[in-house]
Amino acid sequence: MAAKWEMEDRTSSESARLLFLRALRFHPDNQKLYQEYFRMELMHAEKLRKEQKALEQAKMDLGQYEFSEEIMKAELARVIYKDAIQKIKGADFLLSFLAIARLFDFTKEMQEEILLDLQSLHADDPLTWDFMAKRELEAESLPSSEHESKQTKALEVGRREERCCAVYEEAVTAVPTEAMWLRYVTFCYERFKRKSNNEELKQKRREKALAVFQRAHESSLLAESLYKQWLQVLLAVGLMDTAVEVAIAAARRFSQSLDTWQSCLQVLVSVRSHDVPTLFEEALAHIKPKESLPLWILRVEWTEETQSLEDTEAFFQKGLLSLVPAISVAMKEQYLDWCYRTGGVKKAKKVFTSLQENRPFSLAFFQKMIQIEKEQETCKMQNLREYYERALREFGSEEDNLWLDYIKEELNHPQGKPENCGKIHWRAMRVLQGERVERFIAKYTLAQTGHL
């Protein structure tokens, strides 16, 4: 900030330069300092060039003015750049100087020099190849008329993308690593996602993306994160069988990854594959039980959609017996909901009664039963009291809103007893702890005054 003030407000480039040099003595590895010092020298060169041009246009004598050719040709900026890349390595840092240089129209030679340095110093860095490939998208083409057809423009875009891919092809041969393939695949995937009304271009992008995904996979160099994108492409173009094969292959390659197994089962569930039970058991053999809940949720979804009521019932019973609390709790919630949807309120009540002592529970389990009762034409307050009381027995010390809902039910239900509210309030004050008591009092007061 001090150097910026010296440069812009006091127009003292020398003072700004001294401040940057002093800062770099104390912080020789600070990337931002080098970048801003480089930018300052280019801004100073630009300022001098503009001043000289203005004087020349005014046909004034330049003898009394000092215009250093070295500074105006950005030689000082070049020295800063060279010093920086010797002390701080990395293609990304080097490219940051190119981005700054591009802001000034007199730095063409410097830009070429930076590109040559990039290719000589970081030839094995995937970022280098990625940058050089994407430059092909920016390459100048033949001048086009205003009336150039959309077809012609699409062909030009296609040619540029082919040139990009040619560079990437050279890259994966020269640097056959997962990181390099990640750059290539990501480029193809991003181009595939771009919208176009030209069917030929869309077809080329689709074929290229699928081919590159396949080659990276066959080379065992496709990153785990990219399998999900590959599956999205396959499903988008309707290659369901291939998507299933890829999903299974990915899950078995990254067998310890919950995310990959989840993606695999999601694909199999979406196409209603009969391999879901087998793959589900295979996944459970590799994934830690405490982390496997998402897999159980997907298996439930598939079972409900494709299996008989008897088979679905059997799977829920298996889930209820799980020794992992999170799975047991989730299965109770989903089982109660499924029973209500398939067997009505009588079956739901029967299941609730059979599970009401089978801990652990979630609050959602009791809230679901309360909601089921309230959906009935003859909603009985006696039943609601039972469900609220059971919920409060488990969660009364933690859930201040549960007490408030119970009070509201007594006040608003046709069969409610407002005289019970005082007792419920007294019990809540005894059971709740700390901040929960304060929240309860505040909300109860608002409810009493009609503001809640």
Radius of gyration: 34 Å
Beginning-to-end CA distance, first to last residue: 51 Å
Q: Uncertain spans, ≥5 residues at pLDDT below 50?
A: 1-7
- How many strand elements? 0
Q: What string gives the helices and strands in order? A: HHHHHHHHHHHHHHHHHHHHHHH
Largest sheet: none
Helix content: over 70%
State the helix count.
23
- Beta content: under 5%
- Which of globular, elongated, flat, extended, rod-shaped describes the shape? elongated
Could you tell me the mean pLDDT? 88
Give the helices and strands, then pairings.
Layout: H1 2-8, H2 13-26, H3 31-57, H4 69-72, H5 75-87, H6 91-101, H7 108-121, H8 126-138, H9 150-174, H10 178-193, H11 199-218, H12 224-236, H13 240-253, H14 258-270, H15 276-286, H16 293-306, H17 309-320, H18 325-355, H19 363-374, H20 381-395, H21 400-412, H22 421-431, H23 435-448
Helix pairs in contact: 1-2, 2-3, 3-5, 3-6, 6-7, 8-9, 8-10, 9-10, 10-11, 10-12, 11-12, 12-13, 13-14, 14-15, 14-16, 15-16, 16-17, 16-18, 17-18, 18-19, 19-20, 20-21, 21-22, 21-23
Structure overview:
The protein is mainly α and about 450 residues long. The chain has 23 helices and no strands. Helix 12 (about 225-235) packs antiparallel against helix 13 (about 240-255) and helix 21 (about 400-410) packs parallel to helix 23 (about 435-450). The longest helix has about 30 residues, at about 325-355. It is elongated.
